[in-house]
Amino acid sequence: MILGLDVSTSITGVTILDNSGNIIFCEAWDMRNKKHYPTLFHKGQKVKELLKQIKKQHNVTSIFIEQSLQSFRSGFSSAKTLSTLSRFNGIVSWLCYEIFHLEPGYVAATSARKKCGITIPKGSKAKQVVMQYVIDNIPGVPITYTKNDNPKPHCYDMADSWVVAKAGWLDWQAQQR
Known about the structure:
- The chain has 177 residues and is α/β, with parallel strands linked by helices.
- The longest helix has 24 residues, at 153-176.
- Helix 3 (109-115) packs across helix 5 (153-176) and helix 4 packs across helix 5 (153-176).
- The protein contains 5 helices and 5 strands.
- The chain has a 5-stranded mixed β-sheet.
């Protein structure tokens, strides 16, 4: 089974695919509440608990994590945000290794989308294009909506974790041949 993670300090998307590429688990871990999760360490502790639950319930054989952003783009994340995300990505990577005894593979978002057949038209926002693709093609991702009929924020993270898991599954499939 393939575990795909879209790691974030706010909401982490989690998808598990079986050996046939079917979704058997897909959810989002919301850690935006600063009272419950005031530091990266509190968030890391929560992820550790949730990963241990996954280990008990699923025989994960490969783990793929979306690679954290490495460079600046105007209008996007600051150096502090990128540094914090990289640190948390490292924490979650270590937890995966510690709990599952597996070294995670890292997948760049752009190459993961490409492997899944998702193309982002110029001028479009990748998150929205991925979400629409998942809504149209992947019924196993449980999308919930706001009262204005927009996908709730955590759904974007679940969709991204499916892309990471599917790209990892496709790599795994290629190695099986």
